[in-house]
Design goal:
Blueprint: E1 2-5, E2 11-13, E3 23-26, H1 38-45, H2 64-75, E4 80-82, H3 93-109, E5 112-116, H4 143-149, E6 154-157, E7 163-166, H5 171-178, H6 182-185, H7 196-203, H8 213-216, H9 219-222, H10 235-247, H11 252-255
Amino acid sequence: MWLLDTWAIDLLWVSDATEERYAILSHVWENDIGEDTFQDIRNEMFRGGDRNSSSYRNDRRFRKKTRDFCAFAHAQGHRYVWMDTCCINRSNTAELSDAINAMFEWYAQADVCYVYMWDVTSMEDPRMGVSTFRRSRWFTRSWTLQELIAPSNVVFLSKRWEVLGTKESLVDLVEEITAVPAGVLLHRTALDSISVARRMSWAAPRKATLVEDEAYSLLGLFGINMPAIYGVGRQAFIRLQQQIFARNPDHSIFAW
């Protein structure tokens, strides 16, 4: 996997996710303003200059979210971080497929998962009936389901990178919003003990930009490993169901 150095904003390759300690980011892509890609970071790495200068964290050639995440994580004592926008080489189809299949484990093995909620303010109680936390777009996206469940340590952050709470401290609220039981969220109940239909129901209200990702974002929740192929549309979900049933002949999948 590729890790991002929070001090110099450059990339480090590690062959095993357990070789380095790292924090990981869960967020919603902001397509209107764009995101730093793997190629963006690599191109800047080869431009030279002092990569150990703190000025790189204020360098506007990098997008604000990348700079803010690196600065926040570095202040929390993290030398390395992982974020999907720039730590996956999407131009390499094999690397992309491998990353998608490994992503659940990468989130599970991280020291902490920071959930950045760009549409949430810290100036309110998240438990309020009409809070921006409850209405955050983060709760509607396909990929963020596994990013919520896989890590044991999750910290929710506002649009200004202020701590809103943790998965543990807000577990009752998160359970209410997502329908994922507190036992699963806090790793006290094994995922495999939950029926296939119920796990599928957690994902039902969520959407992905690419239709194939509605299937690929669930691989980790069912312990499935299969090639991530794009351009096949709904066929990806059919393949997922076939793989789930082959691994675990839970007939509740037919109820779904």
